[in-house]
Amino acid sequence: MSNLAPTAAAESFVSEPSAATLEALPGRLTDLAGLPIRRLLPRSGRRLVGPWCFLDSYGPLEFAAGKPIDVAPHPHVGLQTVSWLLEGEIVHNDSLGLRGSGAPGVLNLMTAGRGIAHSEETPTPNGGRLRGLQLWVALPETHRGTAPGFEQHRNLPIAALPGARATVILGRALGLVSPAQAFSPIVAAEIAIEAGCRVAFPLERDFEHAVVPLQGAAALDARTLEIDTLYYLGTGRRELLLAAEGGPACVLLLGGAPFGETILMWWNFVARTTEEIVAAREDWEAGRRFGSVAAYAGERLPAPPFVARPVARP
Ligand code: MN
């Protein structure tokens, strides 16, 4: 999706992993073209978790008519978008001519690399419900100019644990490896815990991790967690001790090697310099580089104004 209300100037994101901790960052309520969303990343004080640089959560929502999601064609560079649904449907179309209909359990992964444009919208017909997540992964210096692409994965590996099931969305967990393409050491898993059950979920000790409760009442280290709050865990943890209190619960685990690069983010671009952002913006405005999304019926999104002021380096 698109970051519709960027700051006027680019924001500098420094990779600053902490030692093992439990830091609660409640989602900040904002909206995406009228759809209420909670922004969990970036937050002040916590810009990156491994290579994860953006996370919006939306729904649960019931609707009788219209399209709660209708994001017109817009460009991306330097990142991957991860679209993950818990309920409902979304259709992706991009400037490579690729189309993917998203549904719960299906990963839509777009690699922007040097540049791509896409749209995302609620299809017709639909089930009248919506609950999902939109995440971005920053590409490392060595791969950020890669060719754009789009992958859909309908059969992600699922690990069965006593009292829980974990879908490995990206990277590796519990000995299972996601088929989705990753460019730096990373993990994303949806962990569904049965009512009243406890699970010890092993972690990569060198990774930086975060947990986001999505449904039900989950507890971590015996602390009850709030839905749509990002719990930053730092590095150095060997396992997650999760429990479902009362009914079943579902959480998202995110992690990766500390990114180690300072990125510059503005609108839908992840870059390293102001000049790159200006060039990407100008290319979009001039109809260069990104191509067009022929399958979308309507106008594309114009780039917001950009103030190319010097970026403060911490
Ligand atoms: Mn997008």
Question: Would you write up a description of this structure?
Answer:
It contains 1 helix and 26 strands. It has one helix at about 275-285, and strands at about 10-15, 25, 30, 35-40, 50-60, 70-75, 80-85, 90-95, 100, 105-110, 115-120, 130-140, 150-155, 160, 165-175, 175, 185-195, 200, 210-215, 220, 225, 230-235, 240-245, 250-255, 265, 270. It is mainly beta. The longest helix is centred in the C-terminal third of the chain and has 12 residues, at about 275-285. The protein is globular, with a radius of gyration of 19 Å. The protein has a single domain (about 15-265), classed as Jelly Rolls (Sandwich). Manganese (II) ion binds near residues 2 and 268.
Strand content is over 45%
**Fold-level CATH name:** Jelly Rolls
Radius of gyration: 19 Å
Q: What is the general shape?
A: globular
Tally of separate helices = 1
So, the CATH homologous superfamily?
Jelly Rolls
Are any ligands bound, and if so which?
manganese (II) ion
Question: What is the quaternary state of this protein?
Answer: single chain
CATH architecture: Sandwich
Number of strands: 26
When the domains are counted, the total is: 1
Distance linking N and C termini: 29 Å
